[in-house]
Design goal:
Layout (H helix, E strand, L loop, with lengths): L7 H8 L2 H50 L1 H6 L2 H12 L4 E8 L4 E6 L10 E9 L6 E10 L1 H51 L14 H58 L1 H14 L6 H31 L8 E4 H18 L3 E4 L5 E4 L1 H17 L5 E8 L4 E8 L6 H4 L28 H11 L4 E6 L3 E11 L24 E5 L3 H13 L3 E5 L2 H8 L8 E5 L7 H12 L10 E6 L4 H4 L8 E4 L4 H18 L1
Parallel strand pairs: 6-8, 12-13, 12-14, 14-15, 15-16
Antiparallel strand pairs: 1-2, 1-4, 3-4, 5-7, 7-11, 8-9, 9-11, 10-11
Helix pairs in contact: 2-5, 5-6, 6-8, 7-8, 7-13, 8-12, 9-10, 10-12
Length: 637
């Protein structure tokens, strides 16, 4: 950056080209020397001319005084006039005056052809002595004009200046040509460097001489040649690396697709037997009073819950990677989400003598409420698992850039620096001794909780960050855009018919699934709850089953994927069978249970009219959804 406070001469110098600078360096000293020399010579010559004029005037005055002595002593005015007239006719004499002793002018003659001014004339006076007595008898005054000499000198100076200007012009032309000749190689080098910078790899400058400039030109050509070879080699290496990277990227994409397909297949196919196991294990305790058997059943259910937890993590990862969990962004009050977290984990914290502090806040953010709640639930669950003393703090803080930072801070054992960069990776767990966390029995995670948090944060347009000090605790944070508090648009509560049962005892339930074990398990479970159950493996069996009832079923529970068609096809068939006229309300409540996570199988489902559950479904969740679906159905009717 140029200095704006630089002197004006330096600014002018910066704007000049190299040719102009060389010309100026060659011409300025010559011009200054010539001007000084002409000035000094002119002044000396003028002084010499004036001195010569004074000497001439003094000689003429002395001569006039000598020849005028006798005539002035005798009073011969005519003779004095003649003498003055003869003297005034001498070259450069402009006036002669002769005075007597009393100062009376006795002779005064003027040369009419000479007009002298005050600056171009010299006046000399001399006393007139009597030749016999050597006494002063008068004086003579002579005016001598130096105008001609001065004019001649001025003409000489003018000619000298003309020749000086012409000489300077010739010198400037020669200097300009010489400067251009000297700067041409440098200018060609500058152009070559610019072309080299623009990508011209074949640029070469000619070597003009064997001086330092020639060395510079040869050095540039050598550097350009080496740069060309280095660039060619680098391009080859880049091309090789690009091809290798493309192959690795294709392999990674193929591996990612294979993993997504495997997770999708595993989450569907492996959940089928797990779902049946969940149903059968839940029905084992019905009408069982033997303590030994109840203890064994409890262990079985604990193992089933552990499997359910592990498959839940896999299901969440599969749904995130297949895009089955789109974000629904809206204005969310943080206090409501915090309250849900407090309700979910306060009892867990108390069971392990920990404190769960959730600070109330009036801040609102722009986010997906369900995803935000899932993020906080995962973080708080993880914090409680790795905290033995103290507790967990959940809070929010407004930032100056219009965002809100949501923090989950624990007083656990902390995370080592070597683990922080991998803590959000899939299947990454901080392994160690018993001190790494609180024992969880058979419920051991896969290391997907924090990975799920980061993926959910990405769907919300942010990232989760972590800070930790071993032995002190860990802080997880996410940053969300702040919005002004608004009015909550509470969904209209359905009018509950007093006649709607609060339980499902006596309900007619049609279960559709192509797995006999699942049909047997859910039929046994619903029967233990007092439901009247019919089962079917396809549409034909479903129609045969409902013909045994005089009225439509209260609830239809169906798997999404069947051997022939889908559960939605069977539900649509039953809808057409029971709806006598177009526009009639839905004849029954419907619940869809699936292990599918791919978006193309789920996007066409109207989840406002159909409750969707993902396998395996716990008995408590199934019971809750059945009551909810029945309530919504009766409110619509």
């Amino acid at each position: 950056m140029r200095d704006v406070s630089a002197p004006w001469l330096e600014k002018v110098w910066r704007r000049t080209s190299l040719v102009q600078r060389l010309t100026c360096v060659a011409l300025v000293p010559t011009a200054i020397s010539a001007i000084l020399l002409v000035t000094l010579l002119t002044r000396n010559q003028m002084d010499t001319l004036r001195e010569m004029g004074r000497s001439t005037a003094d000689a003429i005055a002395q001569q006039t005084a000598t020849v005028s002595g006798d005539a002035l002593r005798n009073g011969e005015r005519r003779e004095l006039g003649r003498i003055a007239q003869s003297i005034v006719q001498l070259p450069q004499v402009s006036r002669v005056r002769i005075s007597d002793r009393d100062g009376e002018i006795v002779a005064d003659r003027v040369n009419g052809s000479i007009v002298s001014g005050d600056d171009d004339s010299l006046t000399v006076s001399r006393e007139i002595l009597d030749p016999l007595s050597r006494r002063v008898v008068g004086s003579v005054t002579v005016d001598v004009s130096v105008e001609d000499a001065v004019a001649a000198q001025r003409a000489s100076v003018h000619n000298a200046l003309v020749w000086l200007a012409l000489s300077l012009l010739i010198a400037a032309m020669i200097g300009w040509s010489t400067a251009r000749w000297l700067s041409a190689p440098l200018r060609n080098l500058a152009i070559a460097v610019r072309q080299l910078g623009l990508g011209d790899r074949t640029v070469v400058v000619p070597v003009t001489d064997d001086t330092e400039i020639g060395d510079l030109q040869r050095g540039f050509n050598g550097a350009a040649s080496k740069l060309l070879h280095a660039q060619i080699g680098m391009e080859r290496e880049i091309a090789t690396a690009t091809d290798e990277l493309a192959r690795k990227n294709a392999a990674l994409e193929a591996a990612s697709v294979a993993k997504a397909r495997f997770l999708a297949a595993a989450s569907h196919d492996l959940r089928q037997p797990l779902y049946a196991l969940t149903l059968f294990s839940s029905g084992l305790a019905v009408d069982e009073f033997d303590p030994v058997r109840l203890n064994r059943i409890a262990h079985i259910q604990e193992c089933v819950e552990s499997l359910d937890h592990l498959f839940g993590e896999l299901l969440d990862l599969s749904r995130l990677e297949t895009g089955a969990m789109p974000a629904v962004i809206r204005d969310v009050p943080l206090d409501e989400v915090f309250e849900d977290v407090s309700v979910n984990f306060r009892m867990v914290a108390e069971q392990h003598d920990l404190r769960l502090v959730v600070r109330t806040t009036r801040l609102w953010v722009r986010s997906d409420r369900t995803m935000l709640a899932r993020i906080l639930n995962n973080l708080v669950s993880n914090a409680l698992r790795y905290t033995r003393t103290g507790g967990v703090l959940v809070g929010a803080r407004r930032r100056l850039d219009g965002t809100v930072r949501v923090d989950v801070w624990d007083t656990g054992l902390g995370i080592g620096k070597e683990h922080l960069q991998h803590i959000f990776d899939e299947f990454y767990r901080v392994e160690g001794g018993p001190e790494t966390g609180r024992p969880e029995g058979t419920r051991r995670g896969l290391g997907l909780g924090l990975s799920t948090v980061q993926k959910l944060a990405g769907l919300l347009g942010t990232r989760a960050s972590v800070r930790s000090r071993p032995g002190k605790g860990t802080l997880f944070s996410i940053v969300l855009p702040e919005v002004q508090p608004g009015m909550m648009e509470a969904p209209p509560a359905p009018a509950v018919d007093p006649g709607i049962p609060r339980d499902i005892v006596g309900m007619r339930v049609l279960v559709i699934d192509d797995e006999p074990t699942i049909l047997a398990g859910i039929s046994y479970l619903l029967g233990s709850w007092g439901c009247e159950v019919m089962t079917a493996e396809d549409a034909q069996q479903a129609m045969e089953a409902v013909h045994q009832w005089m009225q439509p079923p209260d609830i239809v529970i169906s798997d999404l994927r069947l051997r022939e068609g889908t559960g939605m096809d069977v539900i649509a068939l039953l809808d057409r069978y029971y709806r006598r006229r177009p526009g009639d309300p839905p004849p029954f409540a419907r619940v869809l249970i699936t292990g599918e996570t791919r978006g193309e199988f789920l996007h066409h489902i109207d989840q406002t009219a159909t409750q969707v559950l993902f396998k395996p479904v716990s008995p408590e969740r199934l019971h809750e959804v059945m009551v909810s679906a029945w309530t919504v159905h009766r409110a619509a009717v």
